[in-house]
Amino acid sequence: MHATTLHRLLLLGAGLTLTPALPAVELAARDALTGAPLAATLSYDDGGAHVARIDGALRAIAAPTQRVTATATAAGHHTLSFALDPAAGPLTLLLDPLAEPAAFTRLTTLAATRDDLRWLQGYVRRAADGSPLAGATLTIEGRSTRSDAAGYFELELAPCTANADARSSLHVHASGVGEQQRSGIVCSNGVTRLLLALGAGMPAQLHEDVGALDRGARSTGDAGAAMLPLLREATPIGTLVAPGLVPPTSIRVGYADAACTQSCCTASCTHTCVLPLETYVRRGLDNEWISSWNTQSLRAGSVAYRSYGAWRVAHPIRPSFDICSNACCQVNNGDTHSSTDNAIARTPGLLLTRGGSESAAAEYSAENNSWDDPNDGLPCSNNDLSCGDGYAGSPANGWPCLADSVGAGRGCFGHGRGMSQWGTQRWAIAATPPLWRWIVDHYFNDNGAGSNLRTAVMTSPLTLTGLSATPATVAAGATLQISASAGNSAGASHAHLLIGASLYRSGVGYLDDSAHDAPLVLATGTQAIGRSFSVPASAPAGSYDLLVSLYLDVDENGAISGNDLALALATASGAVQVGNDRIFGDGFETTP
Q1: How many Cα atoms sit within 13 Å of 412 on the Cβ side?
Q2: Closest C-alpha among 78, 120, 119 to residue 100
């Protein structure tokens, strides 16, 4: 008989009453970039306020009586808000630091000075509690280093050759704890960052999945046919300004370990890691796209990756987590790369939508050309190759044929739905390469000509309210100041915005002042913004509507153009009155 059962029977025999065990949930808190354990405070309200202290190891706390929104806070870190369920399994909360480690910034800055520099950088930690493993030996490509007292390591490696598919293996050994061989690390100049966890049952062999290279027979397409009726219910929308859509603040990801480093397919995930959506994209884009690819390809990929993750938040694959972490869903682990980080920083919060009410499940696979090369050895899971060579699509699964010349002659490697990963790279390095905005629109909207599932457009996490002009009455040729309140729900700063403005009057048309279009860095939350506006000297007198817009500088030329993406537009009717100096010159207001 089990000892606990015997103890209970003895208590009952003595006439003692047992108090039922209260429902509990296990949580741990760690730094999202370094994996370090955090002393965090968890709070939620389910009819009464509850506060608990958690750290890097899993700790049992009282579970809520119902699904609630909980928050976790830790010194030097952003607050993490997430859904906490009373029946949740073990959870590791990953909180973003207010500032990235100085060592990360230092190498990123160095890598930006030359494109032939390459480093491996990161931390080695105990899987169970996140504590650092000092003195761990790391060996890759014939070079070695040791982790310091904080578990930190960095190693400069030889620049990559022209072979973008070159991959290496890293051997990690921590005396008395364990060792691990991580294969499949893609060679990419810049900074590759790894979060390595040893001990506590971690496997001795791990493979770094890269969807564009490894997606194949394992790609089961979790979205699959079951989700297509949901998507067909959406009504396509068309607008010159991206429709507003607030991204989810966090996402629950299924993992096989408490350190959030061991990816798993749905049924084999035993642990849930909760992290901010933008951090999720950073931890995954370099494991789906190839980090050495052109930045326009990586930016396009970031929109698709983020949108699919956000869709899963609204349509969880399991009650305990929203999405799994390997190629069954989309790959996500503790690795990041400076090139994909930079790409993601250009598109924060941008999702795809079909009806405007929720994110679209932005599917993609490695090679979507509708021809299966019998000699390339690559698995093609597209059950509808009716579009033919030089076209992407899977009409039987809701994705109509799309002329995609960059795929011609390439054997199908994937399911044919949505975006072709290799196609984004080929477009990005074409003789006359389009920008990432065009690439996204090409695959998900057929550049405005799409039908069925190929009708998704990009959304905006930005808002504009409270427009005003000072002074509200001005003479033609004078300058006024425009003020507004701008909101950013992206979960990260938008650092590449431009503020545009116009005056409009029926019969006159739009009056612009592009010389004062102003750059803007918009942090998360709401803030006051402003710019100047010089009224053209030829402006007829009368009442004008004031229009203010926020554009994402897609072409990076510092000026608003047709290549840029309008993310917000607000109008204040009759906000500006334009007078005429000539009436004053004629003595209208002089004393007789």
Answers
A1: 25
A2: 78
